[in-house]
Amino acid sequence: MVQDAADSAMNDRRCIVTGESADPDGLIRFVAGPDGVVVPDLKRSLPGRGCWVSARRSYIEKAAARNLFSRALRRKVTVPDDLAGMVDALLTRQTTGALAMARKAGDLVSGAMQVDKTLRAGRAIALLHAGEAAADGVRKLDQARRATVHLGGSDVPVFMLLSAEQMGLAFGGGNVIHAAVLDGRGGHAALRRLEALRDYRTGSDQRPRAAGADTGHLAVAAGGHGTAKETDQE
What we know:
Blueprint: H1 2-11, E1 27-32, E2 38-41, E3 50-54, H2 57-65, H3 68-73, H4 83-104, E4 108-110, H5 112-120, E5 124-129, H6 135-150, E6 158-160, H7 164-169, E7 178-182, H8 185-202, E8 218-220
Parallel strand pairs: 5-6, 6-8
Antiparallel strand pairs: 1-2, 1-3, 4-7, 5-7
């Protein structure tokens, strides 16, 4: 009976906030740990009854505020004060891990000059700026991106989701200000993680326009960052 209940919960992938069913990739599973504390199960592998919430920060905050986890999990549970922040941190870790794998596969480059060349060659599928990136550096690379589009190339999405330190983790250390994701298996896996983190933070699939960019799709990190000098790895 316990296993049947768990199987039923896995099959009923319905957001406890909206009541709508969705693909697993658009939902985040939660379970109650042995101590009754709600735990995010991003890999969808933890045992026991689970519940699902749309993979948007705002929905997780609503589920916590409305005490929906206890109702869905059919037991009294404790919701961590910053459950949405915990999920953000886990998604960020997945993203940096995917970027590291892309780098090992040769599908990620850093440094303003290398990124510029990659964009102009039409090899990039995504452009990344650290939250600390200076407006001038962002503008220059956007010019390269737009020049490629003008010549018939793809209008690659632009992401500003990670700090320079977080981006540096994908390169084995240091601060990275600008990077480009390349068209390859590892690159596309990293792009999916970037899109998931963007959608989680923005609450939708809409991507706000970059400051100083007239056609780019910029996803800005929640909370924002200050401007720093361009100290990118070359």
